[in-house]
């Protein structure tokens, strides 16, 4: 393809992604009560009898519904978006790279969803810590927009961080890194992973930080093991 043909192809792929995300947002807008109840789950798990979210402006309810619809549209459309990305880069790959690309794409999706699940499960503990830090005289009446942004950011941060092993294994496949080199960096990796987890965690609580750092280190060790298997082959 020429440069102009690549740009036309990119425009077509982006247009499909935009239409799909818009359709997903409409579906999420209709399913708003279910999605809001799901996102309130960690807070209601912590405070079953008083887990209401309070708006302070007449337009906050509409803004909340539109925000949830946008996030929901991105999640619902993510398979199509990833497929369009895959179709765009496929012509530039040789057969060997295509063989590795499919497992990498599948692993990326699974790990991203797993990271979001871990963030959702650990969020009640993060909230409990944040409430306890404020003291007993503080009554928590959460603004839904801020609450929503925090839980979504935490889930996205965990999802992206769980892509760590895919990045390491891809570098090993490309011969940029070797399993031996990663093994020699193990001590520094522990320090770097802990610091990265503290920086990435939006809630800044120690429980979420450890819930992110421990799996990342386990993924680091698994990446070394997978790299050794690939090198032997």
Largest sheet: none
Low-confidence stretches: none
SSE ordering: HHHHHHHHH
From the spread of the alpha carbons, the general shape counts as flat
Number of strand elements: 0
What is the distance, rounded to the nearest whole angstrom, between the alpha carbons of the first and last residues?
Answer: 34 Å
Helix content: over 70%
Structural class by sheet pairing and helices: mainly alpha
Radius of gyration from the CA trace?
21 Å
Tell me the strand percentage band: under 5%
State the helix count.
9
Mean pLDDT: 83
What is the number of domains?
A: 2
Which keywords apply here?
single chain, flat
Q: How would you explain this protein's 3D organization?
A:
The protein is 81% helix and 0% strand. It folds into 2 domains: 1-92, no CATH class; 94-233, no CATH class. With 233 residues, it is mainly α. The mean pLDDT is 83.
Give the structure's gist in a few sentences.
By secondary structure, the chain is mainly alpha-helical. The protein has two domains: 92 residues, no CATH class; 140 residues, no CATH class.
Helix and strand topology:
Layout: H1 3-30, H2 32-46, H3 60-89, H4 95-134, H5 144-161, H6 164-173, H7 179-184, H8 186-200, H9 206-232
Helix pairs in contact: 1-3, 2-4, 3-5, 4-5, 4-9, 6-9, 8-9
């Amino acid at each position: 393809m020429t440069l102009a043909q690549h740009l036309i192809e990119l425009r077509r792929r982006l247009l499909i992604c935009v239409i799909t995300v818009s359709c997903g947002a409409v579906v999420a807008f209709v399913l708003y009560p279910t999605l809001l109840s799901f996102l309130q789950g960690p807070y209601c798990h912590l405070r079953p009898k008083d887990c209401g979210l309070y708006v302070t402006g007449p337009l906050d309810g509409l803004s909340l519904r539109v925000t949830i619809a946008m996030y929901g549209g991105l999640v619902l459309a993510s398979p199509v978006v990833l497929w369009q990305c895959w179709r765009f880069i496929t012509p530039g790959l040789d057969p060997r790279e295509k063989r590795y690309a499919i497992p990498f794409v599948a692993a990326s999706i699974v790990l991203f969803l797993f990271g979001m699940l871990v963030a959702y499960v650990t969020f009640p503990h993060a909230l409990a810590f944040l409430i306890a830090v404020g003291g007993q005289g503080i009554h928590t009446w959460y603004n839904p927009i801020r609450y929503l942004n925090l839980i979504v950011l935490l889930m996205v941060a965990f999802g992206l961080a769980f892509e760590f092993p895919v990045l390491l294994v891809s570098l090993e496949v490309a011969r940029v890194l070797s399993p031996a080199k990663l093994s020699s960096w193990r001590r520094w990796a522990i320090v770097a992973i802990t610091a990265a987890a503290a920086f990435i965690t939006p809630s800044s609580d120690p429980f979420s930080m450890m819930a992110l750092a421990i799996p990342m280190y386990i993924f680091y060790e698994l990446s070394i093991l997978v790299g050794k298997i690939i090198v032997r082959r």
